[in-house]
Amino acid sequence: MEFLAPFARYLTDNRLKLVTAESCTAGLIASMLGDYEGSGAWLECGFVTYSPEAKHALLGVLPTTIRQHGLTSVQVAAEMAEGALKRSSNSDISLSNTGVAGPDPADDGTPAGTVCLAWSFRNGGMQTYTEMRRFSGDRNTVRKSAARYAIERALFYHHLSQQERGIP
């Protein structure tokens, strides 16, 4: 898990706390982060919300967002990330995902391997960035790839959020 070292060091050096909101990775992001020695200094908490009802009740994802855009959408991923950050008052960063790990496509036809991710940051306000990606492989390979991608991409978006706010 050497890929975690730069991320962990960055969070520690900048005294940042993290929350996760996961659907298709089912807590794998939080688990990967928790495996890293010293993660208690920056890993605040994690939400695992598979069902639309859990996404609404625990993270505040609007039922209308799910109806209009579907469960596997960047809009739902964004509301998950923002909801997690709002519900974790000590956190500065949230990572979220929702998608279809497979092996079969979703009922709405969304192909297996499709994952929507979001990163939200509290930098004097809420800033959220989203991506839709397609990962290949079996169910667990998709989940692991999506979890790792979410972690690796977080620093890029945190730097971007600071640049957009004029923070050095």
Describe the structure in your own words:
It comes from Oxalicibacterium solurbis. It is a single chain. The chain has 168 residues and is of the alpha/beta class. It has one domain: CinA-like (Maf protein), CATH 3.90.950.20. Strands 2-1-3-4-5 form a five-stranded mixed beta sheet, sandwiched between helices.
Q: Which features would summarize this protein structure in a list?
A:
21% strand; 5-stranded mixed beta sheet; globular; 6 helices; alpha/beta
Short recap of the structure:
The chain is of the alpha/beta class and 168 residues long. The chain is built from six helices and five strands.
Sheet/helix structural class? alpha/beta
CATH architecture group name:
Alpha-Beta Complex
CATH level-3 fold name:
Maf protein
Q: How far from one another are the termini? A: 29 Å
Average pLDDT metric? 96
Strand content: 15-25%
Provide a count of the helices: 6
DSSP summary, beta strand count: 5
Shape: globular
> Helix amount, in percent?
40-55%
Strands ordered across the widest β-sheet? 2-1-3-4-5
What value does the Rg take, in angstroms? 15 Å
SSE pattern, N- to C-terminal: HEHEHHHEEEH
Number of domains: 1
Largest sheet: 5 strands, mixed
Protein name: CinA C-terminal domain-containing protein
Domain CinA C-terminal: 8-153
InterPro entries: CinA-like_C, CinA_C
Organism: Oxalicibacterium solurbis
